[in-house]
Amino acid sequence: MSPDPVLVQRWIRPEVQALTAYHVPDAGQYIKLDAMENPYRWPAELVEQWLDILRTVELNRYPDPGAKALTAQLREAMQVPDGMQVVLGNGSDELIQMLALAVAQPGRVVLSPDPTFVMYRLIAEVAGMRYQSVPLAEDFALDLDATLRAIEQHQPAIVFLAYPNNPTGTLFEAAAVEAILRSAPGLVVVDEAYAPFTDASFMSRLTEFPNLLVLRTVSKMGLAGLRLGLLIGAPEWLGEIDKTRLPYNINVLTQASAQFALEHKAVLDEQATQIRIDRARLFEALNVLPGVHAYPSDANFILFRVPAGRAGELFEKLRDQHVLVKNLAGAGERLRDCLRVTVGRPEENQAFLAALAKALSA
Ligand SMILES: *Cc1c(COP(=O)(O)O)cnc(C)c1O
Known about the structure:
Aspartate Aminotransferase, domain 1; alpha/beta; seven-stranded mixed sheet
C-alpha cells in the first residue's frame, strides 16, 4: 500500500516540499570531470599502510566524540591560529547546516553572491530561513556596492563567501571581503573549500575580524569520500555552534583515515601542485577553441562559456563521448551558456578537449 499523498502534503513542511533534491548523476563509465574530485589515487604502498591501520580500528566502539587527535593534526596542517576553536563536520555541508540550525529564526536571512555554491540556499531554506542573493558583476567579481547595500537592507545573520567561488572559480578581491566583514551585522563565513589550489586565505586573519569564520574541507584536496570538513573561529561563536552537532558525527573510519592521510600530506600537496599546473594548460587550450571563453580560476575547475544556446547540446555531445562535465545552463541567467569542467589527469583533460573540439565542429 502506498502512502496517501494528502498525508505527505499535510505533514512535510512546505519549505521542504518546495525544494528539488540535490541531484548527483550516476558515474558509470565516464571520464568524470563534473564534481571537483581529485583524479589521483594513492601510491600502492600507501594504500597498504592505510589498510594496516584500518585493521586496528575498533568498529564496535563509538568514535572519540571530540576527535581530539585528528583535530590537533588538522590545526597544524591548516595553520589554524592559536586561540581559535575548530568544529568538525561530516563534510563542510554538515557545518553549513549546523550554522543554519544555530541561527535560524523566522525572517532571518542568509546572504550570498549569485552565482555561488548551491548548498547555501538549499540549507538556508530547509532551516526555514530567507535566502537573499546579490548578483556578481559581469566578470564574476563581487559587486561590492550592491553587496553592502543588500547587507544594510537585509541585515543577514550569515553571509557566505566561497573563496575561491564555485561555480565561477573567481577569487574575490581581499579588500572587498574585508569591507563585507566590517559592514556585516552577523557572521561572515569565508568558505575555503578550494584552499589547496590558491595562495589566498583568510585563515591567518581570524584574529582581526571578530565576526569571521573560516570553512575548510578535505574533499577537494583528495579525500572527498571521507566526508570531513572543519569550521574555525572564535570560541565564543564555535562553542555555541558546536551544540548543534550530533555527538559522533565523525566516524571511526574517517578519523583513522584522515589522520593517516594527513601524516602523508606531502602526497596530496604534490597532487594539488600538479592540478594547478594542468589547470593553466587546460585554461589556455579552452580559450583557443572557437567560440569558447574560459574564466580564470583559482580552484580545481574551470567555468567556460560556449556559443549562445549550445550548452545543453555540447554537454550531451560530451556525454555521448563518455566525458561528464557540469551543465550550468539551467542554473540562472548568468550561467546560461556555461559549462564547468574539473581539472583531471593530463590524459583526461586531453580527452575532454578533443571531445569538446569535435562537439563544437559538429
Ligand atoms: C565542494 C564544496 C564544498 C563541499 O564540501 P564537502 O566538505 O565535500 O561537503 C563546500 N563549499 C564549496 C564552495 C564547495 O565547492
